[in-house]
Each structure stands twice: as structure tokens, then as C-alpha cells.
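Q: Could you fold this chain for me?
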Amino acid sequence: LFADPDNGGHIFAHSLTHGVTAAVLRSSYLRNSDKDHPDTFKVNFSSERVRTALSYIEGINNGQSLESLLGYQFERGLHDRHNMENILDKFIYPLRKQFPLYSNRLTEVDTSENIEAIEARNVVNGYELIEHYRENKKDGFPFAIDAFTGAGSAEQSALTTELERLRDAMDAVHDVI
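A: Sure. Below is the predicted structure, expressed as C-alpha cells.
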């Protein structure tokens, strides 16, 4: 049995149009990715990633900015996902100071409005945080982020996990768009 290392494999699609689109994406990936850049043209449409991307797109359609949605998810992740009894909350305010979200559109809040539809006023600028993380990731923790100074190993692990979740969510949005 012989295997061709350059064979991209089979593509199953619902229609000819889907098949053509998948073939173009697969061809771009196979031609442009290499060992140094394995994620070039990589597209992942798993159901979890598509649901994540659609939730961000829905938030944008409802008037939220991508920066505030990412920041909100990052802060909720620090607060809720890690069983550290809110120890990670101490990083939120310094991060808001280092990566501020300037909405410049403060308006009166209608209390009858759904909380998800209300503009975020004071959260971390998630997009700037991801960009900073991406640019400085190779340098190791703490990614030149002042707010992370003095973080213990468990805190570093939780912060890195949340930063990777945000980076993956942003990648999912890019893939879907």
C-alpha cells in the first residue's frame, strides 16, 4: 500500500458549489502552507467554531463592537472558567487600563433593554489584547503585559488559556467571514 504525501484527500460536499468552494480552499491551503507557517490558508468549520463565530457576528449585528465582545468574553472567562475563587479578577482592571476600550458613544441605558444589546462601556479592548498577544507570544509569558507581572504559574496557565480561547474565537470569525 502506497501513500502520496502530496495528496490532499477527499472532499465531501452537499452540492457542486460547496465542493468547488472546498476544493479552492483546500488547494490554497496545500499550496501555501509549509512547516514554518502551517496555518496559512487553514480553515476550520467545526460546529463549535461556527457557533462561536456566529455568536460574535450576531453581537456585531446587534450594535456591539468586536473589541468589546472579545473583551467581555475574556473577562467572563477569567471570572467564571477557572476554579480560582475570583483570584484572576485582579488582572481585569490593570488590563482595562493597558488595553482601554474607548467607545465614545456613551448613552443613557434603557433598563428594559436586553443586557446583551447594551453597549459595553468598560471592558478590556479584546482585539488589541489579542494583537499584542500574537505579536509577543514568542517571547513567552508574560507577553510584555504589565498587568501580568507577578502572576503565579496557575494564574499564568489560566491567563494563557483565556488568551488562546480569544485568539481561537477571532480565528473562527475570520474563517466564517
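A (continued): The chain has a mean pLDDT of 81.
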